[in-house]
Amino acid sequence: METQIRVTFQPHGRSVSVLSGTTILEAAARAGLVIETPCGGAGTCGKCRVRVMQGCGAATASDERVFSSEELREGWRLACRTVIACETVVVVPLASLFGGEHQILATSDSGTTPEILPDIRKIHVALAPPTLIDDAPDLLRLEHAIGPFKASLSLIRHVSATLRANGFAGTAVLANHHLIDFEAGDTRERCFGVAFDIGTTTLVGTLLNLCTGDKLGVVSRMNPQVSFGDDVLSRIHHAASCGNCLDEMRLALTNEVSGMIDALCAGATISRENIYAAAFAGNTTMEHILCGLNPAQMGETPFVPMHARGLLVPASELGIPIHHGAQAYVFPIIGGFVGGDTVAGMLATRIDRHEGTALLVDIGTNGEIVLSHNGVFYAASTAAGPAFEGARIACGMRGTHGAIEKVVFDDDVRLEVIGNVAPTGICGSGLIDLISELLACGIVTPEGQMLAPDELPGTLAPALARRVRADENGSISFVLSEAGAGCGSSPVALTQRDVREVQLGSGAVRAGIILLLRQAGLDVSDLGIVLIAGGFGNFIRRSSAQRIGLLPGGIDHTRIRYVGNVSLAGAQAALLSGDARRLGEDLARRVKHVELSTMDGFQDAFADAMFFPRS
Amino acid sequence: METQIRVTFQPHGRSVSVLSGTTILEAAARAGLVIETPCGGAGTCGKCRVRVMQGCGAATASDERVFSSEELREGWRLACRTVIACETVVVVPLASLFGGEHQILATSDSGTTPEILPDIRKIHVALAPPTLIDDAPDLLRLEHAIGPFKASLSLIRHVSATLRANGFAGTAVLANHHLIDFEAGDTRERCFGVAFDIGTTTLVGTLLNLCTGDKLGVVSRMNPQVSFGDDVLSRIHHAASCGNCLDEMRLALTNEVSGMIDALCAGATISRENIYAAAFAGNTTMEHILCGLNPAQMGETPFVPMHARGLLVPASELGIPIHHGAQAYVFPIIGGFVGGDTVAGMLATRIDRHEGTALLVDIGTNGEIVLSHNGVFYAASTAAGPAFEGARIACGMRGTHGAIEKVVFDDDVRLEVIGNVAPTGICGSGLIDLISELLACGIVTPEGQMLAPDELPGTLAPALARRVRADENGSISFVLSEAGAGCGSSPVALTQRDVREVQLGSGAVRAGIILLLRQAGLDVSDLGIVLIAGGFGNFIRRSSAQRIGLLPGGIDHTRIRYVGNVSLAGAQAALLSGDARRLGEDLARRVKHVELSTMDGFQDAFADAMFFPRS
User: Which of A348, A391, A412, B79 stands the most exposed, by the fewest C-beta atoms within 10 Å?
Assistant: First the structure.
């Protein structure tokens, strides 16, 4: 394990530890700050400017082309070109952040941020008490102060009592024009919402301040439904397999979400009763189960969901224990296997704003692919499997503390581990790096075979060769780390079986992209931008993704951009803005849902993609 | 008891039995058909034309002025002038009905009928089942057929199953744009609603066909809350007197309403599950209790209600057991003692359409008075007491089977009894007639004293004089009927105490009218029309109402019109038309609420009105 170097980003105050040689761009991404790189990190556009306040990097030729000598003296550098060699403090100006403050909600092309205009508004009122002359009823008094509203009977019962017990003052909580509560005192500061990405394998939730848009916490858990099967089809079958199976799965999910909300509240020391809105984005099956809708009909041809529109329903009806009057938004659906998470991704990346042709590839347990071509959207789904989320991989894990998230080979293996600790497993981004390196050095063949110790190429560095092991049954594995807890009782290693899982997953995504382009009459050369999304970890190396064939050959790597968990970002956008939600509804309606399996050439395309590309 | 004569009205097929000498106009009113009389029944306007197909009435001078000799030969007569002398069959043309088919919902001046356009619509659909090519989700398929809608999660759960179990066909039930049910088969014929007048003393409910507007039944019951006190103030105090008193009163009411709905359903052989809407009009206190809103603040100055706007809430939230997705509408409120029943009355009479100055007097346990003057509305409330609804009167009863509803004195007493049976009591209209006749013949003095047998004027017919009795304590009463069941064990009689109740009640109404006119700077001579509403019975005789001083002196009797239960009529209008409901909301907002007790001269006006008028 090499020494890691500390990099601190200001004014955000975030620090990460990285290997020597990492660019500031990559380090910033690990700190959750995605910097503008319209040129794809080629050092030419000058958009990724940052100011190195403390550190030891010399200016590169690119820096000298972009900055004046005074700027260079002040520490201005291009984040994509500047390599970290010692402890560094970097100031990232807002203008350099991808999409400004709400960076993952906007594209680099537009640079605009969506307005924060949530449905929830809190208004503090101090009303004149009634007299014989001014004898307007209590609620009419309130209406004069806050505008027309609707309210449930139970709330009307409560408002007068609260008004009269507090000298006709208090805080009205409005969800659009529905009064959902009337609170004693001035509670305007306490106004929160939660957004969730409900993945087949992974759940991620964030707590947001609805007034400022600030993110107050994030929590990630395994979807407890994995005990009922690790892909959507097995979930669909389980839901239909007994009378209360659907409800059992729904409760497993909502209980976990409830626990995540507890954790978010504890982290921010707020009360669940001050969470007034929730937004959920998930694939079609996950959203159906969340809503208690039987997904059975998606398990048989023609794989048709029950509903498609976004649902705005009482959170209590979903069993989500936040404010009793809160509404929960569940994202609109495109088709049986292209769900609300894809719509959320389209919304977060504003794929509609890309001129020409753009591709969004969201890799989860299913890989969803959206192609945007001159205002027309095509979407399809392909079974990537849970490998990239760490499941079905011997030492796989999510991108959390202890996960190997970056792998580089030189004369031996160099690792980056989240939290800078001994590794306990490997997450999606690490896996992609590792397979890429194994392919590059010939330990794994393009056919996906991991060579035995005695079959290795003679040019291989000895340290690397020593990591290839065969057990007593002849099963081959590649050992990453003997140190630390490892996975189970073994060292952290990659098995032949793991290689097959990645091979199938990346092949499925590549074939899906090729077929969808074909459906639109396009070719990879038409692609202006390729956005890769998913919960791989903190970053994904484009070269690695290309090397393992997650994307078709022929895409200029400067056109590829990693945009992170866009499903969660879209859910957050919907929470913060009714306009964003309506835009999502509109995008969902405009998408052409393509069922790849009914296309001519489907079998051939998948068969072709089952091998890794020959470099 | 004189023989009664049968009169049949066509094409309605309704028959009533009346005393000889009754006009066709009065008989029609008893049959529920209110005929146009813009001239007030003076025989001059010619609007009340009917055709006597069978009978024995000769043409009057008025008939000869209005009709041609050919028309006279065909049987055309003025309903206001034609007296019934033998069994008669009358055809009433639509043009002669007050307001056409929906007579009580429109004024005679406009003659227009509100459109039947209820919020509830049923649409039968037969959808194409999904295929791999046409893979739209189930609810999107439905949306293509019925337009965009919202639905609860529980209904979405139900729709797909119902569609798929019935070959993708069924009947959608929409309340505005909310899908509230999806029923197997074609159920369009089964679409009903209920409208209720929630009076302090009396509850009246009707069952309507929402497609046609047809009235399928009516049922009337005593408000069971009378056990908690017989006026609104005692109800308000009881509601606040213990922790669950409000809920106890609410449940007493909703249980009775539920029983009435059962009776309506049984009568029309329909299911409660096919009642998709309900409308309720009542005074402010009754509506508060119905909604579970504590009326306590209306028991103390400044008598301010909790809310004012009309409420559209789930019927289930009110505890009204109809369709589980049904909405209930509760009328908007004007002030603490001028409630939704008044708004409903304004709506039913379309008081906004009267040019000049119009007065609506709705006499229930409270008397509500609305003055419309050149587009400005004033409303006030006055405590009439429950006498006109038959309560606090020794032999008082509601206007149902066995009630004396009309009293005429000649040399003895002539009675009309509802159902043509031996009388069991006297209802409001009979009471007004009786007091009027007793005043006219001198048995009751303008001060309200019933003379003892030995004080009676010598000119009095002996048969009438014999009806005045004094018991062993010297209490005087006037016996109406020795025959029949009587009230309790006594004969049907009027007591001195009963006279005092009517005296107070009619005086309160008269004083209220005088004060409200004064507030608007007007005089009785300014009144273009006076509409008297209430549940007195089937009809009210204007001359009697004037004689007992229910109205101020000086109103030309041709300007007075009895319009029946306008609170119920308004509730029905709101059930049948969203436009009507919105109009009611608008009227409620435009009314100036006048608190009579804070006016200068309040005490004097009430003291002046405490005596019956000297004729």
Answer: A412
Do the beta carbons of residue B391 and residue B529 sit within 8 Å?
no
DSSP secondary structure string for all residues of A570-598: HHHHHHHBHHHHHHHHHHHHHEEE--GGG
Q: Return the amino acid letter for A245.
A: C
**ipTM entry:** 0.77
Which SS3 state, helix, strand or coil, does residue B372 take?
strand
Q: What is the CATH number of the domain that holds B64?
A: 3.10.20.30
Whether residue A306 lies within 8 A of chain B, CB to CB, comes out as yes
Distance, in Å, from the CA atom of A49 to the CA atom of A433, rounded to the nearest integer, reads 27
Which uninterrupted H or E stretch holds A318?
helix A315-318
Residue A40 pLDDT greater than 70, yes or no: no
Provide the pairing of β-strand B529-534 with B560-564.
parallel
CATH number, domain at A531? 3.30.420.40
pLDDT at residue B601 tops 80: yes
Q: What would the two tokens of residue A189 be?
A: 């500061």
The Cα–Cα gap between A572 and A215 comes to 9
A309 contacts chain B (CB < 8 A): yes
B138 and B222 in a common domain:
no
What average pLDDT does chain B have? 89
pLDDT above 60 for A102: no
In the β-sheet with A357-363, what is the strand arrangement from edge to edge? A560-564, A529-534, A357-363, A367-373, A376-382, A591-593
The contacts of residue B488 (CB under 8 Å, 6+ apart) are none
What residues pair up with B300 in beta bridges, in sequence order? none
Q: Which residue has the tokens 């999304």?
A: A533
Summarize pLDDT for A419-453 with one digit per residue, the tens. Answer: 888 888 999 999 999 999 999 999 999 999 999 99
Residue A112: predicted pLDDT: 35
CB-based contacts of B197, cutoff 8 Å, min separation 6: B203, B204, B205, B281, B282, B341, B344, B535, B565, B567, B568, B571
Q: What is the C-alpha to C-alpha distance for residues A431 and A429, in angstroms, rounded to an integer?
A: 5
Contact A308 B136 (CB under 8 A): yes
Least confident interval from A9-18, A186-195, A506-515, B168-177: A9-18
Which has the closest alpha carbon to A361: A200, A182, A509, A575?
Answer: A509
Taking the Cβ of residue B140 and every Cβ of chain A, the question of whether any pair is shorter than 8 Å is answered with: yes
B437 and B387 assigned to the same domain = yes
B chain contacts of residue A318, beta-carbon cutoff 8 Å: 153
List residues bridging with B360 in a β-sheet.
B370, B531
Alpha helix (H) ranges present in B473-528?
496-519
What residues contact B133, with CB distance under 8 A and at least 6 apart? none
- Which residue, among B140, B254, B331, B381, would best test binding to A if mutated, counting the most A CBs under 10 Å from its CB? B140
Same domain (yes/no): A317, A382? no
Nearest to A302 among B130, B140, B156 (CB): B130
Decide if B514 contacts B603 (C-beta within 8 A). no
Write out pLDDT tens, residues A51-90: 898 888 788 888 988 888 888 988 889 998 898 989 999 9
Structure token pair of residue B118: 């209820």
Domain that residue A603 falls in:
340-386+502-608
CA distance B149 to chain A (A): 10
- Contact list in A for residue B137 (CB cut-off 8 A) is 304-308, 333, 335
Residue B104 within any structural domain of the chain = no
Residue A197 in contact with residue A257, Cβ under 8 Å?
A: no
A164 touches B: beta carbon within 8 Å: yes
Residue B396 DSSP class: B
Do A32 and A85 lie in one domain? The reply is: yes
Burial class (CB in 10 A: 0-12, 13-18, 19+), B610: middle
Half-sphere exposure of B398 (CA within 13 A, CB side): 15
